[in-house]
Amino acid sequence: MRIGIDLGGTKIEIAALDDRNVEILRHRIATPQTGYDDTIAAIRDLVLGAEKELGAHGSVGVATPGAISRKTGLVKNANSTKLIDHALDRDLGAALNRPIRIANDAKCFTLSEATDGAAKGADVVFGIIVGTGVGGGVCVGGRVLSGAHAIGGEWGHNPLPAPRGKEIDAAPLCYCGKHGCIESWCSGPALTADFKQHTGRDLIGTEIAKLAANGDVAASETMERFYDRFARAIAGIVNILDPDVIVMGGGLSNIEALYAELPPRVERYAFTPEGPTRIAKNLHGDSSGVRGAAWLWRVDEVKNGLPG
Q1: Whole-model pTM?
Q2: Phi then psi dihedrals of residue 257, to 5 deg
């Protein structure tokens, strides 16, 4: 049995997969806001409770914001700041008396969709989570690529390619401390801010997209700027990685027009004269992160030539 945990700032979700990779349990609780130790205890209790309910012992993988530093062994780059500078994998391992596998939530999303989701059967997959932020992950041959600094796929903190006009003069400040990151131009809050700047109206991305589909001129102009910026950003991925499939997740992945609007724009900006890159909506939705966390143990099996 494989157990996956999706650790977020507001919720912790657990799912268990049986030996046939069928989901047999799912629970969700609020993330404790009282401190790091309480978060460890909550995850421990979720896992032990699930094992008691199912009458079986399982491996545990965790999807988490940020990453485990290869240099220090501590969490870094997490927007859930209470995790930073803690040895999350070791602390959870001690609490559960077993080894734990941990990966960034975007990497777990990508692994899930590459394994049995929208990119099943594809060799090279790039996963994009676009919502409050912009994250990414890379999966090749059924394995997540972490990288020397555990930041593989973190394209959201590259600068927006080919900036022009006001994109040069007024590049927004990103939470990471740099100006003009892809995340600061292409996230949900960035789309909302662009529309509000031009109209004074405060709407979320899916609402703006709906207005555009219904012929609202200002919304259409906002979405055109968004599509163009997003396509330039994705083109950089295509030129470097040339993925078989790009899978979209996060709140903005629910904008159905993305899947018609982005491919021809990406093809125009990228070095791909032989046809557009396939861009697909996720299959497992909000469940992909926790499923990918459970699949982290299958990565070891693939690596060692064992059946998954």
Answers
A1: 0.89
A2: -65, -20
